[in-house]
Each structure stands twice: as C-alpha cells, then as structure tokens.
Amino acid sequence: MELTETQRHYWQKNLRITAILLAIWFFVTFVIGYFARDLNFAFFGWPFSFWVAAQGALIVYVLIIGFYAWYMNRLDQEHGVAEEN
C-alpha cells in the first residue's frame, strides 16, 4: 500500500513530535535526576533533589501528555482525520 503525500507528511510530523517529547522525557528522567543529587539544600524541610525527582518530573510528564494530546488533535484536524463529535 502506497502512502499519499498527505499521509506521509502526517506521519513524519507525528514521528518528529514523538521523538522530541521522548528526548524531553529522557532528559528529565535520567539527566536531571542524576544531577539532582548535587542539589543538597533544604526545600520545605526536604532535600531539593527529592522535590525535583518526586514532584518536578511528574509535572513535566503531565505537561508532555497534555501537549501531545493538543498537538495531535490539531494535526488530525489539519489533515482531515479528526474524530467527529
């Protein structure tokens, strides 16, 4: 089955945004988490590294999910494959 140019463009944009968001996820999870150990000052009575890992990362994950949903809805509408309400 040969893809049309519109389908190919849609798929390329989908892969690009997925790769970017996965890179952000990797950075927040592993890079910031690794270097957060060096942030050893108290923040509301807990080490700041705890807040970065336990709270900050979760906020970024929710933002990634929200952005992906918004972006894909917009991309679906742009390419005429959006679900009808």
Summarize the topology:
Elements: H1 5-35, E1 42-43, E2 46-47, H2 48-79
Antiparallel strand pairs: 1-2
Helix pairs in contact: 1-2
What do these coordinates show?
The protein is mainly α. It has one domain (17-79). Helices cover 74% and strands 5% of the residues. The chain contains two helices and two strands. Strands 1-2 form a two-stranded antiparallel ribbon. Helix 1 runs antiparallel to helix 2 (48-79). The radius of gyration is 18 Å and the shape is elongated. It starts with a helix and ends in a 6-residue tail after the last helix. The model has no long low-confidence stretch (mean pLDDT 88).
- Which bin fits the share of residues in helices? over 70%
Helix/strand-derived category reads: mainly alpha
List the strand order in the largest sheet.
1-2
Q: Give the biggest beta sheet.
A: 2 strands, antiparallel
State the separation between the terminal residues, measured CA to CA.
29 Å
Which regions have little confidence, pLDDT < 50, spanning 5+ residues?
none
Number of beta strands: 2
Q: What fraction of residues sit in β-strands?
A: under 5%
Integer-rounded radius of gyration? 18 Å
Q: How many DSSP helices? A: 2
Gross morphology is elongated
* Mean pLDDT level: 88
Number of discrete domains: 1
Helix-strand topology string:
HEEH
